[in-house]
Amino acid sequence: MAMAIISSRTRLGRRLFLGSPFVLAAGSALAQSAEIKFGHSSLVVATGAREIKFDVELALNDAERARGLMFRDKLGPYNGMLFDFYQEAPVSFWMKNTLIPLDMVFIAGDGTVKHIHANAVPLSTDPIPSEFPVRAVLEINGGSAKLLGIKAGDKVKHPIFGNVG
Questions:
Q1: In sequence order, which residues have a C-beta less than 8 Å from that of residue 76 and are 6 or more positions away?
Q2: What are the residue boundaries of the structural domains of the chain, listed by start?
Q3: Does domain 9-161 have CATH number 2.60.120.1140?
Q4: CB burial readout 63-76, b (16+ within 10 A) else e
């Protein structure tokens, strides 16, 4: 992550981050006031004998991660958002200003699914912790992980994990 790590927790947009209060305030203001243009990519979740392709938006900086999927009223069945934190660390999300239920797929640096939080409640400010240090988080429609058979131990294939050939 680009921000300095310190010991206090500060809310930024919809996430809880460890970081510099100045950077957090600037990132939060930017996320709330400007229209953010997310990059796009595709990724594959390998689960059992299946490979499931998703088209995702990329949240790669503080402002993008703070905005996430806020204010959206729908998400396609094979769409999502991939949040890259650039290093493994414990992270925590919340659903403030998020209008649709989401599954949060917490992913280690090698692409292994470590934990899934299913059906996060829209608009909730309750923290949703990663439970393990993770490199990235994939947000998809609530209930999709169970419906598609995605579970802890599966592999997410994307260039950020260095596992796409």
A1: 55
A2: 9-161
A3: yes
A4: bbbbbbbbeeeebe
Q: pLDDT digits over 35-44, tens only?
A: 899 999 999 9
Q: Are 28 and 140 within 8 A, CB to CB?
A: no
Q: What are phi and psi of 42, to 5 degrees?
A: -125, 155
CA separation for the pair 9, 53 (Å, rounded):
35
Starting at the edge strand that comes first in sequence, how are the strands of the sheet with 134-141 ordered? 113-120, 102-107, 134-141, 79-89, 50-59, 39-47, 155-157
> Residues with Cβ < 8 Å from 91, sequence gap 6 or more?
15, 16, 17, 85, 106, 129, 130, 134, 137
Write out the two tokens for 67. 């905005």
Q: Could you list the mean pLDDT of each consecutive 10-residue stretch along the chain, which spans 165 residues?
A: 28 40 40 76 96 98 96 97 98 96 98 98 97 98 98 98 91
Whether the model clears a pTM of 0.90, i.e. scores above it, the answer is no
Q: What is the pLDDT of residues 63-99, one digit of tens each?
A: 999 999 999 999 999 999 999 999 999 999 999 999 9
- Inter-residue contact 69 to 102 (CB < 8 Å): yes
